[in-house]
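Changelog excerpt

This revision adds worked examples to the README so contributors can see how folded entries look when concatenated. The first example is reproduced verbatim below.
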Amino acid sequence: MNDFIYLDNAATTRVKEEVLEAMLPYFCESYGNPAAIYSPAGKAAKAVGLARQQVADVIGVKREEIYFTAGGSESDNWAIRGVYEMLSGKGNHIITTKVEHHAVINTCKYLEGLGAKVTYLSVDEYGMISLEELKAAISPQTILISVMAANNEVGTIMPLEQIGEIAREHKVLFHTDAVQAYGHIPLDAEKMHIDLLSASGHKLGGPKGIGFLYVKKGLKLPPLIYGGGQERGRRGGTLNVPGIVGMGCAAELALKAMNEQMKQVMYLRDCFAEKLLEEIPEAVLNGHPYNRLPGNVNVTIPGVEGESVLILLDQRGVCASSGSACSMAQEGPSHVLLAMGLTQEEARGAIRFSLSEENTEEELDKAVHVLKEIVVHLREIMLQKYT
């Protein structure tokens, strides 16, 4: 039993017991390299094949369209840089959004240095793009649209099916960073006309250091790593068999429990958000009011600094964040919240809570109580400072 209340599941999740159990044999027992030809290695290769199918089933694709990577950031880099290299003779224009994960934004900025033209779509106050702006941005030079499935900070779910239809109509490839959405909400790559999709194992009860890139059959994406021909010649290097097995198991568990867990986590989320907004004066929910990830509650609390709140929450045994775990070390307020129209002061007062099915109503009530006491304390200090 934890001695803390964990409300930062968007950053990472606890490895599920079933996942750990599935992984363990591939460390010390069936530890053969799956590329070898002797029988112990065959067991590892078979486990990798099963995991590839388990991962593919969540998004309704074929197992041979799944390529394992070290995580979501690597998959994003491979998708965007790979398409740019693959289609450099056709065009150099990429369309993305101002609220993407830094793995997408910084890859696009890198490509701008190589001559790419990148359009960063605006979002409204809920973090949602305009489909009309997307259509207007497409030109004969456009080779890729990269829009995340759901925002990692505010939880807003993007209209993937409509984006996919627009991309297909204009014969432009469509990539989505689905790291936050995969295994948490239904995703159908074929129905949504998705050509490339990135995901990560540690966001759904799997291990860290493993992810995948879905590449639609027929796309000749250049290799990410040149080596011994692993992953059908597109990503060299010995496969992380325990990690792959763990992600496969986590994916299968997520698919089986998805509908029930969505209902459960949404109920917890709504109860938590309602109590939080009631108990803390002037607190405002960021992101779309209902079209959001099941476990995401991102709030701005005027009159306090988010960093100070997080430190005091930690001292009281509550784990939360102020946004993306990958950008916590960077100075300045959230680029996502600024793009949504919040002021720098408002963005600095934002806190992200991300729930899972493992949280309880009792935990959440305690978290609200602790947060309320902290906010009262910090506001009193600020009042004394300026009086």
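The second example, added in the same revision:
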Amino acid sequence: MIHVTAPGRGGIIGNPSDIYGGTVVSCTIAERAEALVSHSPVLTFDVYGHFQVLGQEADLEYLPDLHYLDVAKAVWRYLRKSELAEQGRIDPAATFHVRAGSNIPLQAGCAGSTAILMAILAGVLAHFGVEMSRHALAELARAVERTELGVHCGFQDQYMILFGGLNCVDLRGKENHAGAGQPYATVEPLAADVSELPFVLANTGIQRHSGEFHAAPRQAWEEGDPRRRQGFERLGELGRLGKRALLDAQWEWLGELMNENCEIVRDLIGLGEVNERLIEAALKAGALGAKLSGAGRGGTIIALHPDPEWMGANLLAAGAERLIRLVPSPGLEVTHV
């Protein structure tokens, strides 16, 4: 049996420039997804209690009543027609059992869907004895998410989930999503040089799919809209400046950068009423900076304050459903049980 766990993440500064070849600073959270992959005489998927035995090709299609299963189905749909299958490293007719779940908030902008997809993907690859670099696996996971699930995603989540910790992820050269031949991301670990993380994440409890959130802005960017071209380029610059502010513990400056990040996203994409309310509450309570950590019009905000516990209490009083802390935890881990 293969056991895989994968962390969620919180975006500190620069997001969502990872969709546009920018730079982000991001950190894992303690919450993780997990998947178990084992031998079975029939192909069986069990994700968040949504269970299905797949006996024919049509069973791999999306079923609205069992929508959580589509993450596992997407992985297997992609792998069955991939180069790995053409090379004989994956048997498209194989049968196995996948069970997966997570304590990362769902559709909350903490990379929960990507974490569970990557746990399943890594588990299935390990089941077949397929090995690849973390960079290649991140790109493969992103390809599954984009082509099979239709998510308008960047590359932050996949790289953060694989590498774990606190990182600056530089994605310059990846703005066109060209696939094979484009550069890998540069992942720079920062945790050893950062003594504190005075942040708190506040989850609204409202679920929104980030792919839906980013579809229209991405289309406008691809069509050459100058406002979005300039705005998302600036977000990438904020990510690189934010890295310096974080390393130098220049918290007031980092707060200013976070607030500018928030203003750009508000202007180019929108934040959503609930997020606006929590961000306003954080700033009124003395946060140096507050912005979206992930998926918009729902999701999760991140606030910078010298006393994160006190700030968290204020955000709960303002209507947050759940608090989350940044924890530089290990990236995706695969074990043979």
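Reviewer comment on example two: The mean pLDDT is 93. Residues 226-247 form the longest helix (22 residues).
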